[in-house]
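Design request, tokens follow.
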């Protein structure tokens, strides 16, 4: 009886996907390498039909530039050297866009290329510029084809995989759902080759998905794995958005997913951990410029009472940062507790750490704010794995 009730409940939850009006669809490298023309054409066919039927707006996050470049250059295995990866991306990106352009052109739908690096979303001004550009594309309407800018990206600014980029795109465009098309039929409770069963519904990512996600091993043509897809689901979930990891080889898979059918794995967003757009950006799109270690009293005030960080709670300053930069908040073991925008530079925080707010002006000769990090500029991450 419990299983029957659970099945009914899952069906009702999937039925909510019928109300999706804007979706981010991520397509993996392996799918595009094995069918570089046919796969975009099939996806475009589905999305064009869904636009005509229900006014669906779509952003495509497409891997595949490096994989297609490898094919053109006759490389059997993915290079490990960054310059060669950049060269593959430079060769493959044009082919990738050409395939998407032809696929959507068959339905009279123009596409627009959007290439991003981590720096583009790490900087708040550039993040907003990307958001405005994507909004303008969708308004015309144009289908944005988003990819990491692998030709110029290097290790310090790479997203690492397009699953994470897709999850950040959800926040960028205000999507209602994220669909990740991959070469497996969802998350499994063990290796599918050893009899592992598909997990159709995940309510709690940490408890129900992370233990089965495995590592983020590269596939030979891409850098993702199930772990990166679970992480993407968690990031999208903090925006209040569901994620479906689905088998991209199945015909009409997008119609099935967005029609509420029992395919793939549906990751539900947490009901009590939703972040606003700005704090979501702060939590997942930024790369901290330094770190501040806080004492246990400050940790309790921030976690339990949603207070601001005062200088009296600062134990140590790590790295160099300016006022307005993003910093990590650490406990005394070095674990990241949260992120925030510092009101003062690292040098200033070092001078006022451990002191009362009333002492700031006497120490520095001026005072911007009483808080080192105001609660409105802080997001708490201690209850989850570090992003």
């Amino acid at each position: 009886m419990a299983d029957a009730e659970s099945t009914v409940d899952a069906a009702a939850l999937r039925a909510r996907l019928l109300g999706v009006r804007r979706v981010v669809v991520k397509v993996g490298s392996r799918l595009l390498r094995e069918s570089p023309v046919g796969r975009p054409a099939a996806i475009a066919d589905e999305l064009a039909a869904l636009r005509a039927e229900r006014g669906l707006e779509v952003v495509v996050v497409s891997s595949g530039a490096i994989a297609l470049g490898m094919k053109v250059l006759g490389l059997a295995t993915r290079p490990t050297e960054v310059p060669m990866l950049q060269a593959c991306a430079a060769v493959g990106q044009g082919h990738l866009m050409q395939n998407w352009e032809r696929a959507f052109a068959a339905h009279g739908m123009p596409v627009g290329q959007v290439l991003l690096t981590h720096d583009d979303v790490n900087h708040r001004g550039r993040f907003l510029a990307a958001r405005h550009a994507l909004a303008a594309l969708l308004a015309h309407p144009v289908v944005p084809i988003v990819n990491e800018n692998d030709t110029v990206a290097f290790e310090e600014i790479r997203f690492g995989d397009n699953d994470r980029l897709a999850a950040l795109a959800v926040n960028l465009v205000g999507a209602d759902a994220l669909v990740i098309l991959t070469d497996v039929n969802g998350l499994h409770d063990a290796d599918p080759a050893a009899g592992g069963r598909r997990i159709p519904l995940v309510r709690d990512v940490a408890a129900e998905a992370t233990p089965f996600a495995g590592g983020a091993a590269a596939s030979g043509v891409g850098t993702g794995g199930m772990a990166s897809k679970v992480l993407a689901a968690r990031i999208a979930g903090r925006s209040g958005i569901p994620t479906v990891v689905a088998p991209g080889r199945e015909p009409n898979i997008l119609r099935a997913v967005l029609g509420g059918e029992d395919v793939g794995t549906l990751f539900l967003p947490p009901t009590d951990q939703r972040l606003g757009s700005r704090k979501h950006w702060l939590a997942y799109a930024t790369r901290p410029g330094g770190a501040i270690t806080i004492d246990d009293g400050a940790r309790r005030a921030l976690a339990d009472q949603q207070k601001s960080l005062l200088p009296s709670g600062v134990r140590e300053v790590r790295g160099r940062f300016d006022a307005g930069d993003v910093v990590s908040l650490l406990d005394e073991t070095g674990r990241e507790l949260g992120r925030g925008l510092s009101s003062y530079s690292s040098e200033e925080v070092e001078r006022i750490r451990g002191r009362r707010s009333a002492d700031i002006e006497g120490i520095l000769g001026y005072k911007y704010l009483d808080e080192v990090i105001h609660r409105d500029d802080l997001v708490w991450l201690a209850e989850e794995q570090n992003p």
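Comment from the thread starter after seeing the answer: thanks! The first strand starts at residue 22 and ends at 27.
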